[in-house]
Design brief:
The chain contains 15 helices and 21 strands. The strands form five sheets. Strands 1, 8, 9, 10, 11, 12, 13, 14, 15, 16 and 17 form an eleven-stranded mixed β-sheet that branches. The protein is of the alpha+beta class. The N and C termini lie far apart (49 Å).
Length: 544
């Protein structure tokens, strides 16, 4: 496939030229950030996205992702091997029937104003998340396993009836409506984080922007916030494990442009640059400044099951088997990895030391001859008579390359024509929600480390079921997995569900997963990772 930009410069050659230019700049190196006071240990993060907010039950996306790891302590976290790490809770108990979860909070944990972290602070977030008047609570559904939660959010029930109570200041009890074997994983999502009672309120929706009210119970707290530009956090002296925190402050700045971010790293303005273009991996190969982590992201094609000929399972299978994913990803870049898994390729298993995707045979194998035979069987030998289908995608550079590569692969291997339709993000979201597409690029990044995060999207009653999958057996298997408490038996059910969805019906067509390309100051030490592979800097140190 030969891709060119306007003016005729081949994309592949352009990447090579950029890589050479970067190599020539490597001698500039990186340096410790200069914004901090003399004698302080500080680092600066640079990122291309400042989307979202810093309120746990709010729009907890990009900006929140880094902030919460620094400033807000949840009940528990998980390390990179999936082991439980106790944070605000020093322990928890679960009743024999799996319904009652009791968390025992640390009594030496403090908010950054010196006040204690108590059970009511967790209830404050939960109630704000479930309040029907809170239009910003995009993850409220993670609370629905709690008795009364879904009813409260819909307005059919009362917040007072939500089964979360403070038995005392340091004992928090949650009662579920049914056993939920992955409930511990949900505890790492925003609505389960604490927010200071009486300070974080719906009446003051901008409380989190003000350092006087934006309190932290984690290793750091907000000391400066400049909307759309940056924020600064400083060490929280009341953090329960403050003696292990080595940095005095951290600055997070939003540069919005990958080239500006790269330049900021190379001149020492930032110590960590996240979300860089894929050619950085080539330019910095072998350098101790390069690190990449495996994203829990799956990119896939949704076929509209109500449009001919996509309502024919043979056609959907032919498309799945007829895409050469290695060639597709080679066009898009080094940060795209071929995958035939719908559940993110690098998601940890809950019942073994393997990745979930590696516990079973591939869901399907690319096979052009079989794909051609299936298409012929469906009435389209060599693609003859096959109608031109439209592939809709958000009009970013990467998605445009992905679309072009898929288009070329299907034309070459199956003889079918795909028309490309790149649209703005808002239009893309509307088209996907309305179902007014034929083929559409979809993507999902895990909010927590459990395959159900992907698989329950395609139950017949899911609001995220954008192509109206309706398979009674699939629903039954998902529902059985939700009450199965044996980890291995539950994983077997989840694998079965994925096979039904992907390799038996091809209602979802996986294409690739992603890695995140980053640069960092090699003087950083004691950087850990969580179960999603994201770096954790709360206990980081840096040589002065």
């Amino acid at each position: 496939m030969h891709n060119t930009l306007k003016g005729g410069t081949p994309i592949k050659n352009l990447k090579a030229l950029l890589a050479v230019a970067i190599v020539l700049m490597l001698a500039l190196g990186s340096a410790v950030s200069a914004f901090a006071e003399a004698g302080e240990k500080s680092i600066t993060f640079g990122t291309v996205s400042g989307a979202g907010d810093l309120d746990p039950p709010g729009i907890a996306i990009d900006m929140w992702t880094e902030y919460c790891k620094l400033c807000v302590d949840p009940l528990i976290r998980f390390d990179e091997e999936g082991n439980t790490v106790y944070e605000a809770a020093e322990s928890y108990d679960v009743s024999e029937d799996g319904l009652v979860w009791t968390f025992h909070l640390r009594q030496n944990a403090g908010w950054s104003d010196g006040s204690p972290v108590v059970a009511d602070d967790f209830i404050n977030t939960i109630q704000r998340a479930l309040n029907p008047e809170n239009g910003m609570s995009i993850y409220a559904s993670v609370l629905y396993p709690i008795a009364g939660a879904q009813e409260a959010r819909s307005g059919e029930g009362s917040l007072e009836d939500v089964a979360v109570v403070a038995l005392d200041d340091y004992t928090l009890e949650m009662t579920l409506k049914a056993p939920c074997p992955y409930f511990n994983q949900l505890l790492t999502v925003g609505p389960f984080y604490p927010s200071k009672t009486g300070v974080a309120t719906l009446e003051d929706p901008s409380w989190w922007k003000n350092p006087e009210t934006s309190l932290g119970n984690g290793a750091f707290y907000l000391s400066e916030y400049v909307d759309g530009d940056h924020y600064v956090v400083k060490k929280n002296p009341y953090f329960w494990n403050a003696d292990e925190v080595k940095l005095d402050s951290v600055r997070v700045c939003f540069l919005y442009d990958q080239q500006a971010l790269l330049a900021a790293f190379q001149t020492g303005e930032v110590d960590v640059a996240s979300g860089l273009p894929d050619y950085i991996a080539d330019a910095y190969a072998g350098s101790d400044e390069l690190f990449m982590w495996n994203m829990l992201t799956s990119k896939f094609i949704l076929p509209n099951l109500e449009v001919e000929p996509l309502n024919d399972e043979r056609v959907r299978e032919a498309i799945a088997l007829g895409i050469n994913r290695s060639e597709v990803c080679a066009v898009v870049g080094l940060d795209y990895i071929p995958s035939t898994s719908y559940v993110a390729e690098y998601m940890l298993s809950n019942s073994s030391s393997e990745y979930f995707s590696k516990e079973q045979e591939p869901l399907f194998t690319e096979d052009v001859e079989k794909a051609q035979a299936l298409l012929a069987e469906a009435g389209y030998p060599n693609g003859e008579g096959f109608p031109t289908l439209t592939y809709t995608y958000p009009s970013s550079d990467k998605d445009a390359l992905l679309a072009q590569a898929i288009q070329a692969s299907l034309k070459q291997n199956l003889g079918i024509n795909i028309e490309l339709n790149g649209v703005e993000d808002q239009v893309y979201s509307s088209v996907r929600a309305e179902g007014s597409y034929e083929l559409i690029r979809h993507s999902w990044t895990a909010d927590f480390n459990d395959p159900i995060n992907y698989l329950d999207l395609y139950t017949s009653y899911s609001g995220g079921n954008y192509n109206h999958v309706n398979i009674p057996e699939y629903d039954e298997v998902i529902e059985a997995s939700n009450v199965e408490t044996d980890p291995q038996a539950r994983n077997a059910l989840l694998h079965k569900a994925e096979r039904i969805l992907v390799s038996e019906n091809f209602d979802v067509i996986p294409v690739c997963t992603q890695v995140y390309v980053c640069l960092w100051n090699p003087n950083l030490t004691n950087v850990t990772a969580n179960e999603k592979g994201e770096h954790m800097y709360r206990y980081a140190d840096i040589a002065q």
